[in-house]
């Protein structure tokens, strides 16, 4: 009998790595997107989640709607920082206050400022952190992030919870695309050639993380909005 059979009840418990990943992976680049697998370790993910829970008490998740059609997004959102991204019948824009409470967005916690400093390669601080909540089944269609005035600054993304199938293409909507998974704790930067690349989330893969008790996924994107 082999002692390494995975059905063996005496086999050692699984290593504490995210499901779907055989080992902590090296950074990689896909169509200009730079991915840092496991950038946030388990403790940092929990600390970030705590900070987000506190922020959401002050700035609740809202459901953005499409300009013109008023159709609701499948993701719900909130923001941290001096500016926040919103979308409604009046269009996409950044504003200093929550669209429903009218209050300023909560401050950016040090953990997020540290991630920007470490990964952003940009001398000035971020002004907005858009928080997207993907309940199971939510997705995000292919789009460009182009409501900022300063495309020299990167977009720095952090993922928590269930893994996403993330898709990225080129500067034109019809350019060829590639996809890869973003797991809980992964960071990604869209900078340089990829800053204006079309991208989106095809789907969130249920059961790939136990960070969030009810499943689903949080994605945070740190952005510089104005020119310094
Ligand atoms: O959820 C993601 O990974 C991407 C989010 C995104 O593209 C955005 O908020 O603009
Ligand atoms: Fe985006």
Count of individual helical segments: 2
- The second-level CATH architecture is Sandwich
Shape: globular
Number of domains: 1
Task: Outline the low-pLDDT stretches.
Answer: 1-20
Order of helices and strands: EEHEEEHEEEEEEEE
The overall average pLDDT, rounded, is 91
**Coarse structural class:** mainly beta
CATH class: Mainly Beta
User: Order of strands side by side in the largest beta sheet?
Assistant: 1-2-11-8-13-6-3
Report the strand count.
13
Write out the CATH superfamily name: Alpha-ketoglutarate-dependent dioxygenase AlkB-like
What share of residues are in beta strands?
25-35%
- Rg is 18 Å
Main sheet properties: 7 strands, antiparallel
Instruction: Say which molecules are bound, naming each kind only once.
Output: 2-oxoglutaric acid, fe (ii) ion
CATH topology: Jelly Rolls
Helix proportion of residues, in percent? 10-25%
- Amino-to-carboxy terminus distance: 66 Å
How would you describe the overall organization of this protein?
Its cofactor is Fe(2+). With 228 residues, the protein is mostly beta strands. It has one domain (29-166, 180-202): Sandwich (Jelly Rolls), CATH 2.60.120. It contains 2 helices and 13 strands; from the N terminus they run E-E-H-E-E-E-H-E-E-E-E-E-E-E-E. It has helices at 42-58, 110-119; strands at 28-30, 33-36, 76-80, 84-88, 91-95, 128-134, 140-143, 155-161, 163-168, 178-182, 187-190, 199-205, 217-223. The strands form 3 sheets. A 7-stranded antiparallel sheet has the order 1-2-11-8-13-6-3, with helices on one face. The radius of gyration is 18 Å and the shape is globular. The protein binds 2-oxoglutaric acid and fe (ii) ion (FE2). Residues 130, 132, 140, 145, 157, 164, 166, 182, 199, 201, 219, 221 line the site of 2-oxoglutaric acid. Fe (ii) ion binds at residues 143, 145, 199.
